[in-house]
Amino acid sequence: MLQDPKASADWLSRLRDAEAQLNGAILGQSRAIRLILLSVLARGHVLLAGDVGTGKTTLLRAVARAIGGPYARVEGTVDLLPTDLIYDAHLDADGKPRIEPGPALSKGEDLSIFFFNEINRARPQVHAMLLRMMAERSLTAFRREYRFPHLQVFADRNQIERDETFELPAAARDRFAMEIAVTVPAERDDRIALAFDTRFHDTDALIDTITPGLLPYHGLNALAVQIQDSVHASPVLQRYVFDLCEALRDPIRAGLAIEGADMVRLVRGGVSPRGMQALVRLARAAAWAEGRDAVLPQDVREVFGPVMVHRTFLGSAYEARREVLVPALMRAAFDTIPVPAE
Ligand SMILES: Nc1ncnc2c1ncn2[C@@H]1O[C@H](COP(=O)(O)OP(=O)(O)OP(=O)(O)O)[C@@H](O)[C@H]1O
């Protein structure tokens, strides 16, 4: 547990409260909600991917409200330029040219959430700028460096449209701790409620049901340090994490088999050290969220898929079927690598 048990208990109860409120507002997305909260605890950036109109924006806005703090948002479009994030040049009412800070700077260095809507509509130049903001939590503009110590980037992209979209480069994807799938709720009753219950028609009112600042943003960095320092990972658990990651890098050596795929050609590359760090940070956060001070295999399995999905590169013959093959690969790794006894 954390050094100060009272502070730890207070954070845990806030976490439970935030999770319950989010599940009350966003229907049928309990797994996505849990994963986003874990990324908040692990201070990792999040990419949401899914179908159109499934509540991705609503979910991220609701989480932003639970965290509190200054929040900025930008819509990805094909004509967006990196400088559009930094400044806005326009003529004022007197016809004089004016320069105002753009979305990345308008809320100052206390910025807690930068929300990038439809990130795959923006061009690679914009991704490159975002990459620095994500990796270094800083930005150079107007001849000075801005630092954003509390920054967490939330981005979403819809998976339906491929026209006029730009795939995120591998280095940009690797900077997202997780890619979380948001699909239509599985339960019939949830889908009916979303259509008929007018509570879900007014997004602003729905988001207003979340208590602002339940998980105060200015305390999250210190909390994350404490979680990472105090949650233990045994040597056996470390080996399990390593073996799972190696199985994705070299599935043949690990003895994985998937029907209809030539395992020699299936994967290219493997998970980066940054990816493994994300896995460990999130697994520790998952253990802490369950009130434990040691990581169990189930914590690793809870976050493994979303940490690895956008970091798994397939051979060109298989890329078109990645939505089926990547989950099959993860399942094969889970089924093949022996789970250590707890
Ligand atoms: N699971 C859900 N729970 C609560 N509201 C939902 C849910 N799914 C959709 N909605 C409602 O549907 C509307 C559209 O949601 P939203 O704009 O968040 O979707 P989106 O996934 O961001 O869409 P797009 O892919 O077009 O960006 C909102 O009014 C939202 O409240």
TrEMBL record:
Sequence ranges assigned to domain AAA+ ATPase in this UniProt record: 42-186
Pfam families per record: AAA_3, AAA_lid_2
InterPro entries per UniProt: AAA+_ATPase, ATPase_AAA-3, CbbQ/NirQ/NorQ/GpvN, ChlI/MoxR_AAA_lid, ClpA/B, P-loop_NTPase
PANTHER family in the cross-refs: MAGNESIUM-CHELATASE SUBUNIT CHLD, MOXR FAMILY PROTEIN
Protein name: ATPase AAA
This protein's encoding gene: moxR
